[in-house]
Amino acid sequence: MAVVAPQLTAYWPMHLAELAVGLALASAGVSLLAGPAPRVLRWVAMPLFGIAGLAALAAGLGALGQPTPLTATLPLGLPWLPWQLRLDALSGFFLCIIGAVSTAVGLYGPAYVRGFEQGRDSLATLGAFSGLFLVGMLLVVLADGAFLFMVAWELMSLSSYFLVAFHHEHPANRRAAFLYLLMAHIGGLAILLGFGVLAAFGHGFSFEAMRGAPLPVGWATVAFALAFVGFGMKAGLVPLHAWLPEAHPAAPSHISALMSGVMLKVAVYGFIRFVFGLIGQLHWQWGVVVLVIGSVSALMGVLYAMMQTDLKRLLAYSSVENLGIVFIALGLSVVFLGTHHTLLGTLAFVAALYHALNHALFKTLLFLGAGAIAHSAHERDLEQMGGLLRRMPWTGLFFLLGCIAIAALPPFNGFVSEWLTFQAALQAWQLDSGVLRSLVPIAAAVLALTGALVAATFVKVYGVAFLGQARSRHVRRARAVPRGMRAAQGLLAMLCLVLGVLPTWTLDMIAAVPRQLLGAGLPRAAAHGWLWLTPISRQTASYGAPLVALALTVALALGFWLFGRGIRRVRRCDAWDCGFAPPTPSMQYTAAAFAQPIRRVFGMLFQVEERVTTEPDGKPRHVVQVTDRTWTLFYRPVARLIEKGARHILRLQSGHVRTYLGWSLATLVILLWIIA
Amino acid sequence: MDHRLTLLPTAIAWSLCLGQLLLYALLAPLVTGWVRKVKARLQNRRGAPIWQPYRELYKLFGKEARMAHTASPLFRAAPYIVFVATWLAASAVPLVATDLPTAAVADVIVIAGLLALARFFLALAAMDVGTAFGGMGASREMFVSALAEPAMLLAVFTLAMTAHSTNLATVVAYQLAGTHLLRPSFLFALAGLVLVAVAETGRIPVDNPSTHLELTMIHEAMVLEYSGRHLALMEWAGQLKLMLYGTLLANVFFPWGVSRSIDLPSLSFAFGAIVLKLAALGAALAVAETVLAKMRVFRVPAFLNLALLLGLLGLLSHVILEVGT
């Protein structure tokens, strides 16, 4: 008995993870069985979803504290290829991300899906595919073999396809869903081929076999390239991002939150598992590629986000930008690890993970906020919003905190991860190659430019949507959202603040991942106590996040006490506006107007169409349409090439059965010849 | 015993930090007054006394604050946040001594972050009332800062990579100990940072602090709706920002006089030195504002791209020419 007990206690994270998968499956099953009764979805399926999230979160936290990985075998799969699960620190970290976001979504969902009860869309499919989506994501991070990984990956992609196509009565949504399906499968194919390379050298589909595979440099690079294309496509890296701003906004908002907040992180997980975990031997040249693509994604993502007037599309483009930042940090990590600077590589790696976690939290918060606006004002277009802070004060407050976090402003969490990335980049002087020494700081400059543009973008979002006056009648009548929805947003906002104020504790937890995966942690990050974040050394850089937060709070409290006392109520008057006529809602700056200076400066990067149209009521209206340049530069040529190729293949089509049989026979013979 | 021995210097150091914080707040209006005075003399006017900004602040704090009907609570909270964030950012820039604990709380990236926090709320407050000028000011401010902030960080990165630290105190100490004060990379960084400082503090040729023409305003358009103590805090924050950038330029590039120990003679010498340096920089700013004309808004990107380019050149000349020497 005494021998068994410690084993059991050490094993509970795996049981919890399995429980999470089971609960998510149950959530899917319940909503499918409930069918026409929408209440079941609200009262059973969504809470089950949330509890599955909680279980995943607990399992992830438990796994982060375990020194060795846990394994299990599912009673499924093929006889010679069982489905094996493995829960190590990396899986645990991503389980935490999935769990935290799913918990919030489970809390938010019941009230939100109520808005769909009057609609024609089937709530049973929504609940079932949400559950399956969660199952897929959980199994991806738990899988310990290429077989289960790909099955889970496809489950995740397919179930999210049905969620994107949920409002299928709009042709735009059907088109977005199809584009998503297409891209997901091209990406899935690349990943499959990448695993194929590893499996060929490792003689097995389990990750254990792949880990020890002796890879020649050429094949390792091929595997890396395939993985980068496959996972990069899922993560929405430029130029493979075009599906993302179409697909993410099309889904219901809590699903958009899951897709942007979690599914993109699962792609990051896949990339890390594949490149850092399975290939193992890193080459700095790969890092340069990742760094450049990451920088381009970050910059293009935020510039396109700035140009959007649809709130959810804007948030989706901002996900492209944030994933770009994650890949900048990952690229730095590969560069440093490839040149044997282990401490710096670990620092950049941790920065990437930290930013992935942060992005999951604040992007979910913002998508839930957008959902709250859609729920109570039925509006996604920024140009129709305004003054929502007074109509929905809690959502307004939480959304503001989300905006501060995403704009990487202290003392919130987004700032910490960008700070860590900067710190890693600024150690570029330790590199030997002059090219790398100049390339890395340029990436840091791009990151700085991105950060400033993000701040501008979210000033625009918050200023236009929540401040000023309502620009349309239905927005003026918006009401506060139900308690569950507010609680979910509040929870995420609190987490954003906590992760920003206590970076040393968070870093301590995250550092378990590189300790297991790369064999090195960040020993000096909290060497001077929990108050000081000193990733390299105290002389190099330090950030006292709790002290900054404390000083801000104390000074603000003092200020309010000194100047706010006695005169609690400030007298109101008409807006001054330099003495011109009293301002009307239509005189306010619009979202498009706010972005105009930046549109002009970076004009060559966009395809801008400006024209004046006449409305039915005879009023002229200025219309600005910004289209993604990648469509004309990348997708159309590729599509044209494929169509051309298809026309050549058309020659095979003769209409005679015997010709087809001949083709089949020839193919069979050739295949047999290759195998033999 | 041992514990008490270490506690005493800590207490002195923290009280010095507090002193520096107060010094910033008290000196900031003086810097603005000095620039105005020099500018007036250069334009053959007598000008207001250099104490005038104090009188204005005093007057504004005594007046009643009014808010528009459409203003939200954010409008009321913003002046406090803007002021406090700017002040905290200033507290981490070494004014007279390098060896202060506040320098470890915030490195130069945190300073940039705190300034960005202040700007974020300033721009939001401008959009809050829903007037056209407020939105215009916010849009332009974020546009200018989107280009200025990376230029500033690039210039600072050059210093940080040379001194192997982003903590300003370490950078200043490194400069004081170093033999080559003016490396080529530093000259580029200095030039870039000067341009950024002009843009960020809203001076000619990017913005005109004394403009009365609404369509050319950036900063002034954002605070149009403020009055009374709210306006006072906003103005004070602006003055603090000017002093912050002045001190940054003065103490990082020309660190002479900054005290590396905590004793009275060296501290008072450092105080005298920084006053002289700020006076010289203020006079230079006044001269520049007198001889230059304000640019059109869409000329500003060219100006800031120059700053960005200078920062990049500084960084590249550092990594190519200076590493390993």
SSE layout and pairings?
The complex is a heterodimer of chains A (676) and B (325).
Chain A: H1 4-34, H2 38-65, E1 70-78, E2 81-87, H3 89-113, H4 123-142, H5 146-164, H6 171-202, H7 207-211, H8 217-235, H9 244-250, H10 253-279, H11 284-307, H12 311-338, H13 342-377, H14 388-391, H15 393-406, H16 413-425, H17 434-465, H18 473-476, H19 483-501, H20 503-510, H21 512-517, H22 545-564, E3 571-573, H23 591-601, E4 607-614, E5 620-627, H24 629-649, H25 657-675
Helix pairs in contact in A: 1-2, 1-4, 2-3, 2-4, 3-4, 3-10, 3-13, 3-19, 4-5, 4-10, 5-6, 5-10, 6-8, 6-9, 8-10, 9-10, 9-12, 10-12, 10-13, 11-12, 11-17, 12-13, 12-16, 12-17, 13-15, 13-16, 13-19, 15-17, 15-19, 16-17, 16-19
Chain B: H1 2-42, H2 52-62, E1 66-68, H3 73-91, H4 102-105, H5 108-128, H6 132-163, H7 168-177, H8 184-200, H9 219-222, H10 228-253, H11 264-291, H12 300-322
Helix pairs in contact in B: 1-3, 1-10, 1-11, 2-10, 3-5, 3-10, 5-6, 6-7, 6-8, 6-12, 8-10, 8-12, 10-11
What is the helix tally of chain B?
12
Unreliable residue runs of chain A: 1-8
Strand fraction of chain A equals 5-15%
Euclidean distance between termini CA atoms of chain A: 55 Å
Q: Could you say which overall geometry of chain B the principal axes of the C-alpha atoms support?
A: globular
Please count the helical segments of chain A: 25
By secondary-structure content and strand pairing, the structural class of chain A works out as mainly alpha
Largest interface: A-B, 80 and 82 residues
- Number-wise, the strands of chain A total 5
Compute the number of strand runs of chain B: 1
Strand count, sense and barrel status of the largest sheet of chain B are: none
Helix content of chain A: 55-70%
Regarding quaternary structure, how should these chains be classified? heterodimer
How far apart the termini of chain B lie comes to 46 Å
What percentage of residues of chain B falls in helices of 4 or more residues?
A: over 70%
